[in-house]
Amino acid sequence: MKPSLYALDMASLEQVVVSLGEPKFRAKQIWEFMMNKRVASIDEMHNIPKKLKDKLSAKYQLFDMKIVKVQGSEESSTKKYLISLRDGHQVEAVLMKYAHGNSICISSQVGCRMGCTFCASTIDGLARNLESYELWEQISIVAADANVRVSHVVLMGSGEPLDNFEAVVEFIKTVSNQEHLGIGQRHITVSTCGLVNRIDQLADEKLQITLAISLHQPFNDERSLVVPVNKKYPIEVLMASVDRYIALTGRRVTVEYALIKGVNDTREHAGALVKLLKGKLIHVNLIPINPIEERDYEPTLKKDVLQFKKMLESGKLNVTVRRELGDDIDAACGQLRRSFEQN
Asked: FRET label pair with 149: which of 97, 182, 241, 334, CA 20 to 30 Å apart?
């Protein structure tokens, strides 16, 4: 398979163009189409000479991944993409349209080895890490398909982002460059189930991103059942790392809490969560869980979600409820990939 142009930086693209016998300024024109024009192929770069497009197409392709399935939710302005990579593996991305702009949730790995029991992407384990360019290529191929500009990025798709640390950090630094996709770091969220050693490393980078902690339980014994990494990094160790992160970066941290009916949505859970988080520079994001075939979890009823939110707010926590993405698009991480592979 021919390599993707998105795997090249500007200097490398200039070298390619010169090696094809063309003037170096053509690289800037190609780059402009890649980063700003949302084209779907080299042929759509209309101000590039046909001779150059032909020579370029003989050695490269714009994308070395392809969209194999799109599911659009009837209940929200959301589309889920199943994307096939150059080696035949699949990952998922979700495009969400909000009043403040277009947000995309992308994958950082093929599969996952963290073993969280509410997540479909971890069921078959980890196949491989994504390369940094494959992260921003997901953004570009979805933006081209939907013909929209993406303003916000969430690394909360398949995989544990901090388990692919170097590629993720390179991704953040690259796409936030104004000469690249120009997505500000404050518009990038990185989620983790709690890899404390990597959170500490990330703090040292002093990036202006939002760190999101997939907490989901305030009690160690119960959290270890749904988030196995808690056995290595229990809640008190994790929260100490979060405190260090906030102190070093000055950035507010988001705590993700997926509400599961009868599992973590009781008054006792709410009280313990308040005790754990009160007084910290933290925002709580409540997530009504999407059911998956392989688990018997059910989402907390809407009225109980609102009651849980009120209990946290009465404890002086800053709380929002995330918009539901919809069961009709296999919205939980890994669902669309698994249903495609099984069929």
From this structure: 334
Residues of the chain with CATH 1.10.150.530: 5-59
What are 173's two structure tokens? 């630094």
- Between CA 256 and CA 290 the distance in angstroms is 14
299, 259 Cβ separation under 8 angstroms: yes
Angle between helices 302-314 and 267-277 (to 10 degrees): 40
CB-based contact 190:161 (threshold 8 Å): yes
What is the reported pLDDT for 230? 98
What is the distance between the alpha carbons of residues 182 and 192, in angstroms, rounded to a whole number? 24
Q: Could you give the 3-state DSSP secondary structure of residue 122?
A: helix
pTM for the structure as a whole: 0.93
Q: What is the pLDDT of residue 287?
A: 93
Nearest to 238 by CA among 286, 280, 297: 280
Structure tokens at 237: 């160790």
Q: How far apart are alpha carbons 171 and 202 in whole angstroms?
A: 13
Task: Supply the angle between the helices 50-59 and 10-19 in degrees, to the nearest 10.
Answer: 110
Helix (H, G, I), strand (E, B) or coil at 94: strand
pLDDT tens digits along 76-116: 689 999 999 999 999 999 999 888 899 999 999 999 999 99
Catalytic residue IDs: 92, 333
Q: Hey, which CATH number is domain 71-342, 3.40.50.10280, 3.20.20.70, 3.40.1400.10, 3.40.50.11270?
A: 3.20.20.70
> What is 5-59's CATH number, 3.30.70.360, 2.40.30.10, 1.20.140.10, 1.10.150.530?
1.10.150.530
